[in-house]
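Subject: two folds for Thursday's group meeting

Dear M.,

Sorry for the delay on this. The cluster queue was jammed most of the week, so I only got both jobs back this morning. I'm pasting them in the order they finished. Each block is the input sequence followed by the predicted C-alpha cells. Could you check whether the formatting survives your parser before we put anything on slides? The first protein is the one we discussed after the seminar.
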Amino acid sequence: MAKTPSKAPKTSADPSSSMPDFSVQSAHNIWLAGLGAMAKAQEQGSKAMEALVNDGLALQRKSQAEAQQRLQEATERLTHMATDLGQQASVRVDKLEHLFEDRVAKALHRLGMPTLLDMQMLTARIEQLEAQLNAAPAADRTPPRTAKTAVSTPKPTGSNTSTSASKPAAKPGTKPATKTLFRKSPK
C-alpha cells in the first residue's frame, strides 16, 4: 500500500507555516501599540497642550518684561543724549549771541553811538541831579544869572526913555516874558 500523503495539521515546527502567523501577530501588536499610544496621547495631549500654553505665556511675559526694560533704558539714554545736545546747542547759541553783541557794540562805538551802559549811567546821573534839585530849598531854585543880565547897563537919564512906561505890566501869577535867543526864519 502506498501511502498517500495525507493532509496533516500544520505544526509550529514547520518554519514555513509559522511565518504568516507571526507576521500577522506582529502587525496586530504594532497596531495595538499605535492605538495605545494614540489613547495615551489623547489622554496626556490636553495636559501637554496646557503645559505648552503655560510655558508659552511665561516666555511671552518674560520677553515683554525684558523688552519693556530695554525700551526704558533706551528712552533714558535718548533723553540724556537729547539733554546733552540741548545744552551744547544752548552754549553755542549763547557764544554766537555774545559774539554778535560784541561786534554790534564795536560797530556802534566806531559810529560814536552811546552804549547801554553809557545810557544807564546818564539816566542815573539825571535822577541824582533831580533828587538834589528837589531837595534844595525854594530860595535856591532861582535860575542863575547869565553874563548879559549880570552886567548892568547905564540907564539913560531922560524922561522919554523910560523902559517901564513903554512895556505893559505883567499880570500877577504869570511868568515874565523871556527873550528868545533864536529868530524864527520866515518861510
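Second protein, same layout:
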Amino acid sequence: MKELQKEFYPKKSKIYIGLYIFFIFGAAMGDWKVLNMALGALPKVISVGAIGLAVAYIFWSGNFRNFKILFNFSLMYSSIIVGIILCSTFIWILDLQTIGYIMKGASKISYQFLNILVVLSAVYMFEENAAKYTFFGIAAANFVIILLGAATTGPAGAVRDLIANITSFGASDVIANSNFIRAIEIHDITFVMGVYVLYFLFFCPGEKYRYMYAAVALFLFFAGLKRIAFLSMIAAIMFAIFCSMLGPRGKTRVLILAALFIVGFCYFYIVIIQKGIFTEFCQEHEIELNGREKIYDYISNFYTVSPSYKGKGYEFCVYLLKSMKGTKDMVVNINAVHNDILKMYVELGFWGFFCWIMGYYVYQTYWFNTRCGEKTAVCFMAINVYMLVTYMTDNTMFYYWSSMVIRMIPMSFFFAPVKDFPLRETDPFKMNRVERRIYKKRKRDEIYERNPRMKVQED
C-alpha cells in the first residue's frame, strides 16, 4: 500500500465548501419576502456559521497563513465603520441625546463588523474562491425564491410576467399587476447580481466557467430588475474596459482622478438636491422617482449645505421618517431615504461627510493600489462605480449582501493573480512595495507547501 499525504485545506474540502454555501444560502433565504416580513433580518445570523467554520479550522489545523494580510484588510474596512460611529457619537453628545438613543444608533451600524468577520472568514478559508462560493449560496436562494413565487402563479404565468417585466424595463404598472414580480423583487440580492456580472466578466482570472456564472448572474439580475442598477452596470463596465486598455501607471492615474471626481460629484449632488434642482430635472424629463422627490424635499428642511452644519447622527433620517408616520407631516409611506449620499450628509454633517467620503473612496483606493496592486484597485473602483449610481437613489450602502460582496470580491481577486504576477526584479531590495509583498507571500507559499501544518493519511 502506498501512503499518500495531502493537506487538509478548506478550499479543497467538499465538507467545508458545502457547509459554507449552505450557511450563505440559509441567510439569503431570509430575503424572501414571506420570511422577511415574519423574521426581519434574523435569518442573516445564519451566515455567522462561516465564522464558526473558520474558527474550527484554526483550532483543528493551527494554520495562521495569510493572517497578517487579512488583519490589514480588517483594519482598513473597520476604520470606515469606526469613523461613522465616532462622528455620530460626537454629534449625539453635542445634542445631549440619551444613552439609549446613542446605543440604538451605534448598534444599527455595528452589525457591519459582523459582516466584515464573515468576509474575512470566507477569504481565510477559500482565498480566491470565497466570492465564487458566496455567489453559489446567494444565487441558489434566489432561484428558490423565484420557484416559490412561481408556485403562486404557475410556470406559464411566471414566465409571461417575467418577460413582460424585462421587455417593459421594469415598468411600474407591470410590477403592480404581477404578484410574481413583486415576490421576486429582492432588492439587495438583485443589486449583488450586478456586482457578480462585473466580477465574472473582468475580475475572475483562471475561472473555467466564468462566463456561465456571469450568464446566471445576469439572468437573476434581470429577474429582479432594478432600472438604476442597469444604468450603473453600464457605467461600471465602461470603466473596467477603459482601465483594461491602460498600463500600470495609467491605471493608477485614472484611479486617483476617479476617486477625487467622486468626492466632488457627491458634494455637487448634495447641493442640487438641497436646492431642488434634482427633482425639478427629473420631473421635466418625466423620470419616475416613486415618491423619492417628496422625501428629499422634506428632509431639506433639516440640513444646510455649509461648513457650519454639524449633522444629526447616524440613523436620524430613518428615525425622522418613522416619527412622522400617521401625522399631518407624513409625505410618503416610506421609512427609508432612498438616497445614501444624502443620508450620509444629513447624518454626518459637512465635515463628517467630507471625512467619510475621502476615507471611503480616496483612502481605500490608495490602500488597494499601494498594498495590492493597481489591478485589484481597479476591481475595487469598478465595483464602487456600479454601487455609487445605486447610492444616488437607493439604500444599498449598508445592505447586508451588497456590503459583504463589495468587500469580498477585491480580496478574492487579490489572492487569485498573485501566483502569476511577473516580478520585474529578482532582488527584494530593488522591488517596489507591491512586488515585495508578492515576493514574500510567494516564499511563504513555497515553505508552507513543503511543510504543511495539517496532513491527512490515506491508504
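Two things I noticed about the second structure. DSSP finds 20 helices and two strands in the chain. The two ends are 6 Å apart (CA to CA).

Cheers,
T.
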